[in-house]
Batch of 3 targets.
Target 1
Amino acid sequence: MNTLYSDKRPVSLTSAALHVMNALIFLLAGLSPATIYANQSIALTSAANTATTTAIAAEGYIYGFPIVLMDETRKGMTGPLRSCTFGTDINTFKHVLDLPDPEFKAVVRPNVDTLYSSAMLDLSEGPLVMTLPDVPDHYVLMAFMDAWSNNFAGIDTTGENTLAGEYLITGPDWRGRIPRGMTQIAAPTNLVWIIGRTELLSPDDIYTVNQIQASYELNPYDPRVRASYGNQADCLEDSEKQPPIDIVLSMSGETFFSRLSELMIENPPPRDQRTMEVLLASVNTGRFADGDVEDLSRIQKRQLDAGIRLAQGSLDTAKQFLGLSGWGPNPRLVPLGEYGKRYFIRAMVAQIGFGANKNEYAVYQNAERDSLRRNMNGQYDYTLTFKADDMPDVGAFWSITAYGDDGFLKYNEHAATLGIERYALSTNTPLERDENGDITLYISSQPPQGVPLNNWLPVPNEDFQLTLRFYDPGEEILSGTWKVPDVVRTN
């Protein structure tokens, strides 16, 4: 869910300049805020015009944003007032059984190429056994996210893989022997989010995909641990719920760092991030703190708020830069799903597309500007052409989906009049080639004339964005040597 932070209070010129500087450093070098702020502590303190609490809060906010968002997402999925779309008990799969439409608001940029299967896991009471069926004719990806949003493991149907098997999902404290015939998936944290995607070959394929989804199972490894099936809980439609990211973005400094402290104790960071733990302990956050966040002085709590505003300003500025260069991000420069100490990139991804998987499983490319770097708008017509000798190199399939400027699907009345309910084109669409073997996609709010309607991607009559997804991408895509063609405005 992608909702930008908004703070109406004026920002000083020094602070604004720092936002731009940090954003440019991120875009050009992919550095973490630990590196950025360590090299610019004087500038940061000057911009904040306070003691070091503000600087620590700024760095801590960027460091901790993903795990706080992960926990809020967990609450939204498994809590007493859970999402009707993704809500279910802990350690249980919830399957989305139909394609999303413009009313779907559960996640930003929903794809219409696959059906989701989601599960929030708590491994603190012991391992879980995931049983998957043999799926020889559909692409399936089970991506595993730890509490910090790292995609630490994945199972897919690429190559000779057919998915079938039993997988023992273990937490960081579990010690034991792996039963014969089981494959271990060792999680670095007890909080894990499984995001499953099962390929939809066509709209008529939904029943088959639902049958595949029904075969995905999760059960406790220890028979003495009770499964959480059948718990009664109310659910709310997504339109009635505040998105998790909005909740996190609206937190005060005291609330945010109190939550972060609890989560860092429950899901300790890797050993090589001990420096961040020690730093945050100085504001009573984490397992090395001498007190609680609520014990800080009133002035320090205000400085926590100031640090959050400073950090979010840098993130917002970086997000504004992202769309300036056409398609992005560059998969070679932005290692989605495996961030290490790239805390700034990790926080950015959490706010733009939370739950992103490693590039090796799928590469996503987003665009909101055409070949001349003008914002794309449905009052104009556009084309995107894949040359016959330069098609996307994928082992599974590719797709392109249109969204409104808010990242959600949009209704197109002209398409509806023609009986077309389409938000994407893909390898599985019967696209027509021209005499040279090229595939040209026609992107417009009204049906194009004199061209194959199978190649038409309807968009709203307003600003819109495009997302290209490459499942099981080849080396040319992963290395960034293959470039997505520009979107060309034709009128």
Target 2
Amino acid sequence: MPEHTEPTPRRTTSRGAAGVAAAATVILLVVGVVALVLGLRGTSGPPQPAAAGVPTTSTMTSTAPTATPTTPTTKSTATTPSTARTPGTGTSGPSATPGQGGTPAGGTGIGPFLEASALTSIEIPSIGLRSSDFVPLHVQGDGTISVPGTAQEVGLYDDGPTPGQLGPAVVAAHVDTPSGVPGIFAELGKVKAGDVVKVSRQDGTHLTFTVDRVASYRKSSFPTEAVYRGDFTRSEIRLVTCGGPTDARNEYRDNVIVFGHLTSGA
């Protein structure tokens, strides 16, 4: 485990592209986030999407994390932020209306986004999920990321974007309890590409993310860059839980991850 560097808080009211790039770099310094322990035991096991040694979409060329995330051996083909890009003024609310599509004024290639705001609810209609019980997740002293305290809480990685900001907002929850009682993300593996994830925020906005893909990864091959870095030219979301068979310690072998992007909001 490399030496842990405390990440810089991401909650600011001004979002220049230089700050976004710096924050993305900070996130990649944290090796401890490469695998989330979000379900300890299961009975027959939760629903499983297709295994993803290699993603089926063309946006990523590799899913395996490197030993030192700051110098990955393979890179995402998605556009990475540049200090030459300025995504709006960031001084008086959103720089563009979510769902408009296209390119904001100035031709920067950066999609619509909003300022930071806390979540008040999340809903996935296709699996009947709805929750308003949120807790912040942080990097701990040992370099690992914290997890929700109960199986019904939904955690938001507090050192990254909130849903609606540029980049991937990472939301994680347990698949079950140690005794096998289903958690809030018990059915996450049933989500399909094209399904929607709806979130409401404290600022009164209601956003819809469309699922791009859902895949299962071995925790030993957690796609750190794809989950925590993603594409900082648009607003994205990641939903993470545990899955797969249990090992000799009765802990889940895999992580189930939903990848989506912002498609509408008001």
Target 3
Amino acid sequence: MKQQKMVMAIGSPNYLNGISIKFQDILIVEFLNFDYFANGIHTKKISFETPHRVRYCILNESQTLQWEYSETSIFSEMCLNLEMVKHNELFKYAVPLILFTWSETSSATDGINIEEVHLHSMIRFTIEDALFIRTNKTAIDIKSAVITPEWYEVLFKKAIKNHEDNSLFLNNHQCYYRKLFNEIEVENKFLLVSNSDDIWALTVDFYHRIRNAELVGYIPEYKDEFQAWDYWNYLFEVVEPGPEVGYISLIPTTDGKFTIKRKWYEKDTFMRREHHYKNQEIEEPFKPYIEERFKVNIIEYPAFRRVRYDVNFESLRSGHVYGIFFDHTTINDTKKNSMSQCEVEYLRSRSLISFDEQIILEEMQEITEWVSGVLSTLNVEFEKTYYSKLTFLKDNYAGRLNDE
């Protein structure tokens, strides 16, 4: 029989910042039921909505471990609302720090075997939950049939060493993201054929499905699970020289400046080279500015307004973050010249151990197939396509010329 085990070390965040390393100031808590994933652990998965049994211990003045049991959630009010410790000054301001996880396999012939020991660092927490990511690339071999209190100290010191080695990545607020496929947009699209579907209703539906774990192995991106956008876009097709073909678009920002988004590609496809130039001061007319700055020949298309709702979520297997975007594009604010789409896009990665781009491609396929299935369930008529905003503008422009 195989069981997953998890122990949490709780104390002052100073331990993660190189300020204090006294193990006797650490509270050890064992969770008996939880969901474990390769890249990290999100404590919402431990079902804090209902009390669960935890085993915890305190190191007393003689540095011996005392084990007790409680039916109380360790995250009730975050400040360790446990009678035996809440008046202890050492733990008055304690927060989750480190998770130790392992598997125990037991049999009548071989007894208990411990394997797959992993260490996780807390990178962000709130009053109700916390997020951890794994810090060891390979499992730790402890060569023991039992994880003793002495082993907790050994594992804790290993975890602190791992954290210290990656302190720049782990200790700075939301600086723990990396982007694989550098300057490459990885994206699938669904064209909503009727163009009358309520993209807000669809966004809410998908949001709740992800929160309810219908997309197995993924959770809403921690504290950044939903975004709304509404902006104008001035797009210019680059037609020459050959290596530069694609488009350049200008997107106004709230400070009166622009973001220049540039993509290089010859046809609509799954991957396109992309670069953003931010905080750009640009004056009209735009066309001569672009031609002079980038030394390209361009075709100017009518401006369009893009309204977009984003549902962001992350893989508990890999730490890669993805988005499902529902957007509505309107040219000149007319219903006739509009388009609705659903996009599935790789956004960024939050991991110390997962740098295999192939995993992104596999997860993109899994997510895209799931989105396709949900749209079908909702009776939404769609086409799986790579249809871009540029192609939409070109098709609309051609239609206008024919009308004339």
